[in-house]
Amino acid sequence: MRARGSEQAVWVACKAGVRRFSVAARQSQQGVTALKFLDFEQPIAELEAKIDELRFVGDDSEVNISDEIARLKAKSDTLTRSIFSSLSSWQVAQLARHPLRPYTLDYLGVISPDFQELHGDRMYADDPAMVGGLGRLDGKPVVYIGQQKGRDTKERVRRNYGMPKPEGYRKALRLFRMAEKFRLPVISFIDTPGAYPGIGAEERGQSEAIARNLFEMAHLKVPIISIVIGEGGSGGALAIGVADRVLMLEYSIYSVISPEGCASILWKSAEKAELAAEAMGVTAPRLRELGLVDEVVREPLGGAHRDPAVTAESIRGALVRHMRDFDAVDVNELLRRRSARLASYGSFRES
Length: 351
Hints:
single chain, alpha/beta, 2-enoyl-CoA Hydratase, Chain A, domain 1, 2 domains, eight-stranded mixed sheet, 16 helices, globular
């Protein structure tokens, strides 16, 4: 019976071949956002395309093809698990940059629906690449800060592709100080290729702004939790990442330089980025082994962009769990632990 059902499904799909353009038009008219598959996901993409085609054909057909769709869906899930069980560091880096990957404001919409964004550094301007404000976590007030990339070309330009300028880091500093004044915990979402290296940014003190944040966060008298949700690029990420707990999503990356930048320096060619990514150990599990990350937050099968709501709930659960650890910790002990944590970075043993 299954074989016969498969034959019917294939026959219906072939018969509908002439209608593919109309199907695509219907998708466009309905505003259906197709998944974007990376190069290494192409076998999955082919199966998903067949599933989508059968679904649209099924709407106009008397033949029941639900069994065939279920079979292909199970096959797609199995293939996805197989591919994602052995991703290289470079493939993880590609996932971290996926154009449909959820950004800071996407997560805050689920984690803290009453989030109120605050703007400006009170010195120069507002930087849309850095967002922050007041919200709640588990019913308690907190200060949220994070980098924000753009979803389309216009927004990417406005948000400078998630690369903050000095005013962005000074806005974050203003919110850090406000959090300390009102004794509110700080939660930061890291997602940037790095701080903006433009001439104007350098003229306005980019390096000073980053260094100031590093210093102030090390001494901030409230709990700080940071989570890398996409790219964690160099000092641009670290300027909001000096924390008591550091978390990473499963398919995010954290490094002192991009794989392409490292390859350009070591091998004089960005084409060696895949080799550089492996050498640097940019992935969450590797950084967890080194003790630089406290928890790796699991993502849905196929990555966070496959189910942003589930990913947001996973993040929320992890944040609540770690934040509760600070309920009975006084300020002096908090600062002592943070200082010891920072001092342990880069330590080594001689045998």
